[in-house]
């Protein structure tokens, strides 16, 4: 049979029923199966692999894979041995050579134009890992230096080359913030706490943690203080303005179930902290016990006739304390003042209360404490706070104020009781108390006046009070 000539391809869409397209397709199928060419062209101009072409492509992939596996499957003990076998390491392929110094299992090399060059990548050995662990252990046991500055036992270097890490004292340092170790935090008369964030610029502790009760505190700004102050205190009352000239701050206000006080913590201008208490149902909501532990509480004692106890027939009325936590008296005796006709019981003096909470008028002792505090503020001194007390007896001679006076004159005994209880209660707050001011107010004149008081009364009282406080009373 005569061979039909290969028709000219058409541009008919697929599938085509044109006999010319069928003849052309049959011829191309024959080329795919039996032809020796690697590719053929269909009637629309598309190029495809023949069977021989697909076999050739498969052989190419297998060869490339083999060439890449050769360097990985070969073990070269030396670099010279690997270089001698460069013909079996394809261009830009990597191979590994055993480390000569034993610091790693193998070092990586790449074929660069027929020459093996080290890439810097290594397979670390256990020996190398152990040596790194040893170095890290040494870092933890000795100081490190950066720019000549010592003190970092375990630093971390940030991207901008700053040191962030643990210090030798147990603290942590990060740019512009230094958190001291526990043993570097000075003792406070409030609960012991660990600073969490401390400013490197001014040394103030912004956030702290109390390990005894698990509570934290933050140094608040004025707006936060005002918000808290509006929400503690009895009957909707607020914490008094205590920032004033002292620049104090209040934080961690709290109220314990069953406690008659609200409690807050105070930070004064010297960055000392202490607990302050607020009598919930007092006439005035006044913070008390707000003075530093470093100094003893001072006692201001007034001794004498009726003017000493009353300050006149009606007394001085003060509605607002000029210093909200400077003058305290005793709970259990109104005005912290006792006439000598009554023998004062020590058990009745249970605690300190703000002097302003008394319903009676303010005594000369209270007013004196306010005046002393004002003077301390003017001189820039830190005020330790004053406990005020008055032992008085109207229209009585000086002899009634001597020790062992006749029955019914308890002036001296009451004064001793005030001082003894001041020292005892102060200890409950972790404080000490010392007699700082003693005033004598006497209305009558005559030969039994101050000349006799100067020796027979002042010295025994002074000596007895000193002995109560464990000090030498001679003098």
Automatic annotation (TrEMBL):
Organism per entry: Klebsiella pneumoniae
Keyword set, alphabetical order: Cell projection, Cilium, Flagellum
Protein name: Flagellar biosynthesis, cell-distal portion of basal-body rod
Superkingdom of this protein's organism: Bacteria
């Amino acid at each position: 049979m005569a061979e039909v000539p290969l028709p000219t391809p058409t541009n008919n869409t697929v599938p085509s029923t044109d006999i010319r397209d069928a003849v052309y397709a049959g011829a191309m199928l024959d080329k795919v199966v039996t032809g020796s060419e690697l590719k053929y062209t269909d009637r629309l101009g598309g190029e495809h692999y023949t069977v021989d072409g697909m076999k050739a492509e498969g052989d190419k992939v297998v060869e490339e894979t083999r060439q890449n596996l050769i360097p990985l499957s070969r073990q070269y003990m030396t670099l010279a041995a690997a270089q001698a076998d460069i013909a079996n390491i394809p261009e830009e392929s990597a191979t590994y050579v055993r480390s000569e110094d034993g610091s790693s299992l193998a070092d990586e090399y790449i074929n660069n134009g027929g020459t093996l060059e080290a890439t810097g990548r290594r397979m670390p050995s256990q020996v190398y890992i152990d040596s790194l662990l040893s170095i890290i252990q040494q870092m933890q046991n000795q100081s490190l230096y950066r720019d000549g500055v010592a003190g970092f036992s375990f630093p971390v270097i940030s991207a901008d080359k700053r040191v962030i890490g643990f210090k030798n004292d147990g603290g942590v340092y990060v740019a512009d913030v230094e958190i001291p170790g526990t043993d570097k935090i000075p003792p406070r008369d409030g609960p012991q706490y660990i600073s969490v964030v401390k400013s490197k610029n001014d040394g103030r502790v912004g956030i702290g943690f109390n390990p005894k009760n698990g509570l934290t505190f933050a140094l608040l700004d004025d707006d936060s203080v005002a918000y808290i102050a509006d929400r503690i205190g009895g009957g909707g009352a607020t914490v008094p303005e205590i920032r004033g000239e002292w620049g104090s701050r209040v934080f961690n206000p709290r109220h314990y179930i069953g406690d008659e006080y609200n409690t807050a913590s105070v930070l004064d201008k010297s960055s000392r902290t202490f607990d302050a208490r607020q009598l919930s149902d007092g006439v005035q909501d006044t913070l008390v016990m707000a003075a530093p532990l470093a100094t003893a509480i001072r006692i201001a004692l007034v001794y004498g006739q009726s003017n000493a106890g009353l300050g006149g027939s009606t007394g001085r009325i003060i509605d607002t304390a000029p210093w909200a936590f400077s003058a305290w008296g005793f709970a259990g005796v109104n005005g912290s003042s006792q006439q000598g006709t009554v023998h004062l019981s020590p058990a009745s003096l249970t605690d300190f209360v703000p002097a302003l909470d008394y319903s009676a008028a303010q005594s000369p002792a209270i007013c004196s404490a306010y005046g002393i505090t004002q003077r301390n503020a003017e001189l820039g001194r830190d005020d330790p706070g004053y406990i005020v007390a008055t032992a008085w007896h109207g229209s009585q001679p000086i002899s009634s104020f001597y020790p062992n006076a006749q029955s019914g004159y308890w002036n001296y005994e009451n004064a001793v009781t005030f001082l003894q209880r001041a020292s005892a209660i102060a200890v409950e707050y972790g404080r000490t108390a010392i007699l700082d001011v003693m005033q004598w107010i006497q209305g009558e004149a005559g030969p039994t006046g101050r000349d006799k008081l100067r020796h027979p009364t002042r010295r025994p009282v002074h000596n007895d009070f000193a002995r109560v406080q464990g000090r030498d009373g001679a003098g």
